[in-house]
Amino acid sequence: MASATTVRTEALVKNYGSTRALDGVDLEITAGHVLGLLGPNGAGKTTTVRILTTLLTADSGSAVVAGHDVRTEPDAVRRNIGLSGQYAAVDENLTGRENLYMVGRLYGMSRTDSTARARQLLDRFNLTDAADRTAKTYSGGMRRRLDLAGALVAAPPVVVLDEPTTGLDPRGRLDTWSVIGELVSDGTTVLLTTQYLEEADQLADTIAVIDHGRVIARGTSEELKTRVGGERLELVAEDERDLAVIARVLAEVGSGEPTVEDSLRRAQVSVDIGKKALIEALRRLDAEHVTVHDVALHRPTLDDAFLSLTGRPSAESTDEEESPA
């Protein structure tokens, strides 16, 4: 039996004056899966999140979350989602425990259940020792973890994570990945926007790449990598004077134009069959008495796919998304 679709958007459009932030966005997330939404700065990721969480109204198109229309049933949508945004939305004058207790009460949970849930989440996010300190004394990473815990208080069927690990150290990021994995194991549906492509590679069942307000590619991480082409063969010259010969040989055995970095004595090219191309390149260079200092074969990464699809390196997506809203 096919899994149900928990989140769906069709032809979402949003304009800010003469700027079209979204230009017909179609998304679909199957229940119990993670959709990674990637895109450069200003591509439309945060605008999409705001529409799905009822913080913004689309100019046209439709969006359904957990069976409820975001335009006509916003209250029902809010009852079925948890949101952790780019900035930690915590009350600095309350303790960590009080913040989570307050969220539980706002969701209609009893005092007893709110207290128990707060205790459980404080432990889950390694905040027990700081539970009774005011949030204004927390570090940025601790506030991010408290904010994420707040999104999970009511155990919603849909969780929207907008840059959830920004500001976290490597340990905090790994802990958050673990929590997201547990959520999915429990059947939670997750929409994840992230500036870390490794994060999407690790967590997302499917990925949608958005640019200029349109979804320009979708698929699994492996499917997107495959679109880039084959492997990349990289050779480093022992003598920089041989770099031109190496580049010529790579052009002969590769499937594209080699890129050359003179300062590193390095040249690389895309190849269809990596091992075969490597052996042939080394055979030809040996015949010309060229010594190679180092060789490497690289499989395409999600960064390569992102660059190929958007024409921009993923580093550009590390800035906060600009939006008039």
Radius of gyration from CA coordinates = 24 Å
Can you tell me the CATH class of the largest domain? Answer: Alpha Beta
> Which architecture name of the largest domain does CATH use?
3-Layer(aba) Sandwich
Helix content: 25-40%
Q: Structural class, from secondary structure content? A: alpha/beta
pLDDT < 50 runs, ≥5 residues: 316-325
Average pLDDT score = 89
Taken together, the total number of domains comes to 2
Task: Pick out its properties.
325 residues, alpha/beta, Rossmann fold, 14 strands, cell membrane, ATP binding, ATP-binding, ATP hydrolysis activity, nucleotide-binding
What does this structure look like?
The chain is of the alpha/beta class. It folds into 2 domains: 5-90 and 138-225, P-loop containing nucleotide triphosphate hydrolases (Rossmann fold, 3-Layer(aba) Sandwich), CATH 3.40.50; 231-299, Alpha-Beta Plaits (2-Layer Sandwich). It is built from 11 helices and 14 strands. The strands form 3 sheets. Strands 6-7-8-3-9-10 form a 6-stranded mixed sheet, with helices on both faces. Strands 2-1-4-5 form a 4-stranded antiparallel sheet. Helix 3 (96-106) crosses helix 4 (111-124), helix 8 (221-228) crosses helix 11 and helix 9 (243-253) packs across helix 10 (274-287). The radius of gyration is 24 Å and the shape is elongated. Mean pLDDT is 89; it is low at 316-325.
